[in-house]
Design goal:
about 10% strand; alpha+beta; two-stranded antiparallel ribbon; SpoVT-AbrB_sf; Pemi-like Protein 1, Chain: D; SpoVT-AbrB domain-containing protein
């Protein structure tokens, strides 16, 4: 699927995609691409799920683990598609 920005830089996200993933996204930039990552309805619960057994870990550790998992997932999707 491809899309373009308008004159103001806005990106059109098709209705089917918004219905499946929601209305809010994080924009993740890489050296060679960007990705839109859906924002969870309950971000705190999503962080806790992603952190797993890291309840007492420093926030920096949790953030690094989440970022690494997101990048690994993006690479898998790249390899599959």
């Amino acid at each position: 699927m491809s899309t373009e920005t308008d004159a103001q830089g806005r990106l059109y996200i098709p209705k089917e995609v918004r219905e499946q993933y929601g209305e809010q996204y994080h924009l993740v930039t890489y050296e060679d691409r960007i990705e839109l990552v859906p924002v969870a309805d309950d971000p705190l619960a999503a962080v806790r799920r992603a952190a797993g057994d890291l309840d007492d870990a420093a926030i920096e550790t949790i953030e690094a683990d989440i970022e690494a998992a997101a990048k690994a997932d993006a690479r898998r999707r790249d390899d599959d598609g």
